[in-house]
Amino acid sequence: MSVDGWNTVLVLGGIRSGKSEFAESLVTDAPVVRYVATAPEGDPEDTEWAARLAKHRARRPGSWTTEETTEDPRRLADVLASAEPNETLLVDDLGGWVTVLLDPDHQPADDVATIAELAEAIRGCAARVVLVSPEVGLSLVPTTPLGRAFTDALGAANRAVADACDAVVLVVAGQPVWLKPLATEPPATASVQAAPVTASAPVRASLAEAEPTPEVQLPDVLTHTPPAAPSQEPGNPWAAPTMALPMVATGLVIQPGMELPMPDEYAGPQAVDRLATLDVPGAGLGVLDRVVGFAAATQGTSTPAAWGSVRVLLLHGDHAGGASAGTVAGESARRAAQARAGRGALARLAAESGASLQVVDTPASAPMEDEPALPLEQVESALRYGWRLAEQAADAGVQLLVLGACGAGTEAAAAAVLAATAGAEPPGVLGRVITDSGEIDDAAWMIRCAAVRDALHRTRRSSRGAKDILAELGGGDVAVATGVLLGATARRVPVLLDGPVGVAAGMVSRDLAGQARHWCLLADHGGHPAVRLAADVLGLTPLLDLRLDLGEGANALVALPLLRSVLALSAALPVHPSLGDEDDAEPADDEPESTDPGYADPTSPEPDIAEPDIAEPDFGDPDFAEPEPAGPGPASTGADEQPASGWRAG
Known about the structure:
This protein is an alpha/beta fold. Helix content is 37%, strand content 11%.
């Protein structure tokens, strides 16, 4: 639960602000959680209050234990003082605790001393603690003496506890705003001294290591004009920011239980129902109606438009050890350089689709059978890096991300992630190893299986939290891919998955934000067993069964024109005349059949038709590989220029 090194957190919020749900999300990855209930039961005839308490109880996982402190307010300090280091305590809430403190049954009592005891117990608590409290200082002054006594006592308690806690967050309308620690300068320039004196050492260390926003390199692979983007109304952009995330002096905090947006639950079914009314001679789009429903839900309209601006993210990162058995040294680097130069299958397919291509270098991963694939601090940086890649794409107007990867050992790393998250058997999700000559290398396949088996045995007692899986098994490319999925979800940008790395990231992202999988689309499983299993677990039904094996990203681009055509057709076709208005009925015999200026009367002389002059794309042209800037206009930096990696380890 500890967020960037904090051990105690105070969560403030008004009535129905979502403070309790947010506090619960902070402890979802803790192995031992003790829920400390402070609210009194109240009047037995107050059914509304009883229903509130029952709702809170129903929301707690069965693995949590519950402890009541309603009988004696001083007992809360004793519970905190006796907590063990391996425990996580969730105290909900201080408003109920103050209510009991002011109860006449506990008078006379020294309220100030009791609050001071609580603050001191928080400072000395060995466990991790999350405390929830109402924020009543923003409301009107109560008109009754008892109401004023409550607000005064609660305000004093909040101030004392906030001073004792490492961090304080205010939840307003479900949106968390972190109040402490708060830097006085932007994250990139904030100094260590800018943090409050109560900030712990890990917080100060991460302040000094805050990484800048990574640069974006966009090779220009555009050979024709892509479909136009849908019209945007002012104030309603395609992928505007949708939520306030935990932003502190250290930057973005990616943690389990994040509340990210969901697609529109009504637009998708409405769009599919609308397909049945279209004027088509046959039965319709078949299984591809799922594309229309997905696009409608992610765009929030029952008539979705074809994706105009598409960006391909190719993640390049190798895995050392047995995971890369059977691969040629340097082959993945050659593929990445080829894509940067605008050559190869992926770049040419991107050119045909009018999609921009971004090659992203991810940190190399260590042999997972011997040691963690990636240090935990680099996992944090990799997640933020991937999130920022998605944000940059959204800011550039990208409407669809295609996620692919190239690297030695990616299949084995994905298999290890699936074994840890879905209980898969490594031999069942590891695809056959095919050599450059097209032969099956069973010896290399067995080495990969052994590497995954040994890695799982090494980590058998390790936590199965999302970040731990990325550190121990997934490595750099899977961590960056997970960040991309989370960032795209936060900005409402759909992602077209392709290959084991993308689906492995989808499995990990479930524990960080379960909404991410609803923004993912799988065009084809490619015959890969890991993709099949992960798709089944994630609820992603592949649209096609072409068994393409052109490399991650390229398979999706083959299907992209078909998906675009389906969306364009569904948006352009009119309603069948039998279901339309009288104005849409068949014209009378004495009326012309069409008012289209291009309509030709069969009785009129046949006009001369000039053949259009269509210029074929020249892939041998050196201008083909010129880099594309992030802005709207093309710019040339040369086909042989190799862009510097935007990666920066945390």
